[in-house]
Amino acid sequence: MKVLLTGAAGFIGNHLAYRLTKDGFDVVGADNVNAYYSVALKRARLARLSADPRFSFHEIDVADETAFDALCRTTKADVIIHLAAQAGVRYSLENPFAYNHSNLRGHLSVLEAARRTPPRHLLYASSSSVYGANVKTPFCETDRVDEPVSLYGATKKANEVMSTAYGRLFQLPLTGFRFFTVYGPWGRPDMAYWIFTEKMRKGEPIDVFNNGEMARDFTYVDDIVDGLVAAIDQPPSVEDQFHRLFNLGNDTPEPLMKLISLLEENLGVKAIKNFKGMQKGDVQRTWADISKARGILSYNPKTSLEEGIRRTISWRTSTDMVF
Prior knowledge:
Blueprint: E1 2-6, H1 11-22, E2 26-30, H2 39-47, E3 55-58, H3 65-75, E4 79-82, H4 91-94, H5 96-116, E5 121-127, H6 151-170, E6 174-179, E7 182-183, H7 192-201, E8 206-208, E9 215-216, E10 219-220, H8 221-231, E11 243-248, E12 254-255, H9 256-267, E13 273-275, H10 291-297, H11 305-318
């Protein structure tokens, strides 16, 4: 089976490409390798795959509809997995037009290309950020998601709505995944666990928002990949109007202060904490109801925060790469 994977140089995309090639899939990766965060890190991720004959890579922007349509036509993939996006809640306050380009135009470009060269199944990344100001926990796929607290979350909700329309209009099987705070080796430098790690290693203070009164459903990257792989051969049907959504989380909201404590333990240093108020665009607590994914995909996250942080810090302290 051939998979066209966007965001192949990204955190989740790179882990997924690695898994798929090991499982015997041919993977055609696409990514624009932009400079939102370290290009060296993205190149290093791609280097992990460069020797695998089952992986090929195209450096293109998926929002370039002509280029991406041509790639779809030549690839004729059985499955498209669209993970490319402009990430980051806080950055959406600084550079909103980047989200219009990558998340809205980019997603539409993928939908249009898939309409013209239909795969058996199109999987795409949404986000737990769509739940926005929702206070009911755990968050369930049937909850209302019309109160975004960030532009990033709003663009991901828009992706879901666009996909619903394309599923109905063109009988294009689409599955969206609301990821919950994904972490692990080869991760993203804009995430709290990475920022804390780098500052603590240097003896610098860390900013702890909402005075530490935060909780996240931290989900180890391998568990996310398990969920995506399980869904490949399970496209939605006419009964689903060719579109459905899954939460992929760990079903365990963990206190922010516990994360910091685990980092201290694994790094062997004490964090210098600079307590601050809540940031704009942030939420106090996330928690994924994963009963739907458990039932349909047999999704079963296995990695505790303790084990996931141990693996992540082991990776980071074993490399001398500067990102």
